[in-house]
Amino acid sequence: MTPTVEEVHRAEFGRVVAALAGRFGDLDLAEECTQEAFVEAVRRWPEEGTPPNPGGWLTVVARNKALDRLRRESTRQARHEEAHVLHDASHDTPGPPSSVVDDRLRLLFTCCHPALAPEARVALTLRLLGGLTVPEVARAFLVEERTMAQRITRAKRKIAAARIPYRVPSDAELPDRLPAVLAVVYLVFTEGHLPGDGAEEVRADLTGEAIRLGRLLRTLMPDEPEVAGLLALMLLTEARRAARFDGGRLVPLAEQDRSLWDAALVAEGHALVRECLRRNRPGHHQLVAAVNAVHTDAATAADTDWRQVVALYDRMLVATPTPVVTLNRAVAVAEVDGPAAGLALVDDLPGLDGYHPFHATRADLLRRLGRRDEALAAYDRALGLATNPGERAFLTARRTEVVDGP
Amino acid sequence: MTQYLMSVWHENDDEVYASEEEMQQAFADTGRFNDELQAEGHWVFAGGLHPPSTATVVDGTGADVVMTDGPFSEAKEQIGGFWVVEAPDLDAALALAARGSKACRGRVEVRPFQGE
């Protein structure tokens, strides 16, 4: 089966933009000419057939369009740089040069540069590397299309005007720069995994896109354990997708039908976690992935090695001592030492009053302790903050159980 | 090469320095940083400014020229000084700004000049 233009679009858009950006150093030109090349593909492929190397075809067409533009623009003042570009173009060959991979990595680091606002980093990455349209990016983040278009335009203008470099940071800079890239990918994933827009329980298009970016990073930076950790974490979470909702209602981990888990994704995630263990350079994403590996390793919820989970959260707390990590650790402690021990850890936590998982966790622990009134109050707080329809349905059902109680 | 304005901003009513000694140290460090900028070839121009209360605003956009005492805006933050530097890209300029900020004990805004 030859791929359709849509399939090629997802796979190749970022690659073509990256190649052109690397060649011409101009993101606008790269984006527009890539777009035009796809328009031409939509027109020609159905009649002429999909070319054997669609990515190569698109890159050549887009590159020629860019060269045409530059020629037209340079008729009045021939600039030295352009003469150089035109000279280079005389030996156009479609084969993918080895630097294509580096181009995409460069593009990713440019899109995620710390001088750009975090929301602009996510938007640019999805638009330029993910090939999502501006309306699609706007919908992903509940922003008006016009606002999102401006955000992307502004970011591109800043990259050009301030000369944000188009390169992969040096090894010395990498520890400072890689986390921002991983954060963008993870943000795309969580937005798909548990969308907060109140419309859908899950956005598989976004989780899929994040995993694709994660796989790309993994290919491009095979020796970075946090890259492997992030990919493992996403795969092990995605593996449970089919079991996470039942009739639009969130199913907690302990009650999920484990036969619905995607065994191939679980196996791939476990292999990555084992690789991280061998490398022994732990980081936050790797530890979260390891927690997920413990869960997906258990045949039944009762088989879960909760002591191991607590130990992993202990290590995470050393590196990332945040209230959210403490909260997640408390859930595991409740399984080992009982809900009272978990609740004691949760009740002291500062700064989480606006975070619905805090109230949902308290509600569950209070419910298990038989403290009905307090549990109901906590469910009400959680329901006042939660926006995901599947999660709201779950919390509402639990609350009803407590009301009807034994 | 791109030229960047690196401006130093202070909160209006802030005592910029904790003590006389710290002020002297900041001046000395900034002087040394200026020397380094020149030696490394980044230097274009730099200067410190008197406080915002010494400023006068001139408006020649209407029929008459109008002069007003005081800084242009009542913004919480005011410019205290600046460098103009030359750097190959933003990463290089940001690295210079980090050194400048440390030297002068102030936050620095980095902004590119328009070319040609």
TrEMBL record, chain A:
Residues 108-159 form the RNA polymerase sigma factor 70 region 4 type domain. GO terms for molecular function: DNA binding; sigma factor activity. SUPFAM superfamilies: Sigma2 domain of RNA polymerase sigma factors, Sigma3 and sigma4 domains of RNA polymerase sigma factors. It comes from the Bacteria. Residues 177-275 form the DUF6596 domain. Coiled coil: none annotated. Pfam families: DUF6596, Sigma70_r2, Sigma70_r4_2. Residues 72-91 have a biased composition (Basic and acidic residues). Keywords: Sigma factor, Transcription, Transcription regulation. Residues 15-74 form the RNA polymerase sigma-70 region domain. GO terms for biological process: DNA-templated transcription initiation. Residues 72-97 are annotated as: Disordered. InterPro entries: DUF6596, RNA_pol_sigma-70_dom, RNA_pol_sigma70_r2, RNA_pol_sigma70_r4_t2, RNA_pol_sigma_r2, RNA_pol_sigma_r3/r4-like, WH-like_DNA-bd_sf. Belongs to the sigma-70 factor family. ECF subfamily. This is RNA polymerase sigma factor.
TrEMBL record, chain B:
Pfam families: YCII (PF03795). Residues 17-112 form the YCII-related domain. InterPro entries: Dimeric_a/b-barrel, YCII. Belongs to the YciI family. This is YCII-related domain-containing protein.
